[in-house]
Amino acid sequence: MPEMPELQGLVNFLSERIVGRRVTKVRVVSIAALKTYDPPVESLEQATVLSVSRHGKFIDIATPEVHLVFHLAKAGWLRWYETLPTVPTKPSARSPLALRIGFDDESGFDLTEAGTKKSLAVSLVRSPSDVPGISTLGPDPLDPSFTREVLAEIVSARRTQIKGVLRDQTIIAGIGNAYSDEILHAARMSPYALASSLENVEIGILHNAIIETLTDASAAAAGRPPADLKDAKRRGMRVHGRRGEICPVCGDTVRSVFFADRSLEYCPTCQTGGKLLADRRLSRILK
């Protein structure tokens, strides 16, 4: 799933190419991906792009009257074309194509989604706050207002595992499964540590890990075309997606815990005092 650094990379890429451009083509290929009906899709055609921005994991393309807002979900992505294909788009259950947008210089992009579980969401709204997922977002961790004190207030009120706190978009916006693994590894903290039990020193360490991990990943994504962003993300991971590999910090073996629709990765030496986490949803550290 694309997370904040990759999505900010997409925002930067699109900003350089489509701001000031006029939309000449809008083709909704997957009706299930379109979550709104008012304003109509036709209202986007011939509109000039004013800006491209990010709200958590949502990308917002603003025009004078309407905003095209999309969330790539777990398996969605953006495919950029310097020259948009002229082959007609046709709805198909087998096609990954969900939406095609073209501009007045013949460039454009497709929104695609792999797999059979379709969760990619596209909304055409008058204000981004009209999208339910945006209106409930927590603070952006790379905003200057996200201070150590803000994080302390967040964790003190939650008797839940810190991994879940980091992934919850209503608590902190933009961090997902991958970067929460990386942040907790950098902080040398168990994913099952109770948020409300963190001491002041630990909160400071976690705050630094959040800022440094996301800042470094955003820098690595800057300037890359969409086709390169996924590989850049994978290369930058120290533990996430690296089960069975060697931890680059201590040399221990990276381990996984599997859940119904995802897994988490961690280093026992760096994060759990050398103890392994049981591989079940209500896991406890093995004795």
From TrEMBL:
<dbReference type="InterPro" id="IPR010979">
    <property type="entry name" value="Ribosomal_uS13-like_H2TH"/>
</dbReference>
<dbReference type="Pfam" id="PF06827">
    <property type="entry name" value="zf-FPG_IleRS"/>
</dbReference>
<dbReference type="Pfam" id="PF06831">
    <property type="entry name" value="H2TH"/>
</dbReference>
<dbReference type="InterPro" id="IPR010663">
    <property type="entry name" value="Znf_FPG/IleRS"/>
</dbReference>
<feature type="domain" description="Formamidopyrimidine-DNA glycosylase catalytic">
    <location>
        <begin position="2"/>
        <end position="110"/>
    </location>
</feature>
<keyword id="KW-0326">Glycosidase</keyword>
<keyword id="KW-0863">Zinc-finger</keyword>
<dbReference type="Pfam" id="PF01149">
    <property type="entry name" value="Fapy_DNA_glyco"/>
</dbReference>
<dbReference type="GO" id="GO:0003684">
    <property type="term" value="F:damaged DNA binding"/>
</dbReference>
<dbReference type="InterPro" id="IPR015886">
    <property type="entry name" value="H2TH_FPG"/>
</dbReference>
<keyword id="KW-0238">DNA-binding</keyword>
<keyword id="KW-0511">Multifunctional enzyme</keyword>
<keyword id="KW-0456">Lyase</keyword>
<keyword id="KW-0862">Zinc</keyword>
<keyword id="KW-0479">Metal-binding</keyword>
<dbReference type="GO" id="GO:0008270">
    <property type="term" value="F:zinc ion binding"/>
</dbReference>
<keyword id="KW-0378">Hydrolase</keyword>
<dbReference type="InterPro" id="IPR015887">
    <property type="entry name" value="DNA_glyclase_Znf_dom_DNA_BS"/>
</dbReference>
<dbReference type="GO" id="GO:0006284">
    <property type="term" value="P:base-excision repair"/>
</dbReference>
<protein>
    <submittedName>
        <fullName>Formamidopyrimidine-DNA glycosylase</fullName>
        <ecNumber>3.2.2.23</ecNumber>
        <ecNumber>4.2.99.18</ecNumber>
    </submittedName>
</protein>
<keyword id="KW-0227">DNA damage</keyword>
<dbReference type="GO" id="GO:0034039">
    <property type="term" value="F:8-oxo-7,8-dihydroguanine DNA N-glycosylase activity"/>
</dbReference>
<feature type="domain" description="FPG-type">
    <location>
        <begin position="238"/>
        <end position="272"/>
    </location>
</feature>
<keyword id="KW-0234">DNA repair</keyword>
<dbReference type="InterPro" id="IPR035937">
    <property type="entry name" value="FPG_N"/>
</dbReference>
<comment type="similarity">
    <text>Belongs to the FPG family.</text>
</comment>
<dbReference type="InterPro" id="IPR012319">
    <property type="entry name" value="FPG_cat"/>
</dbReference>
<dbReference type="InterPro" id="IPR000214">
    <property type="entry name" value="Znf_DNA_glyclase/AP_lyase"/>
</dbReference>
<dbReference type="GO" id="GO:0140078">
    <property type="term" value="F:class I DNA-(apurinic or apyrimidinic site) endonuclease activity"/>
</dbReference>
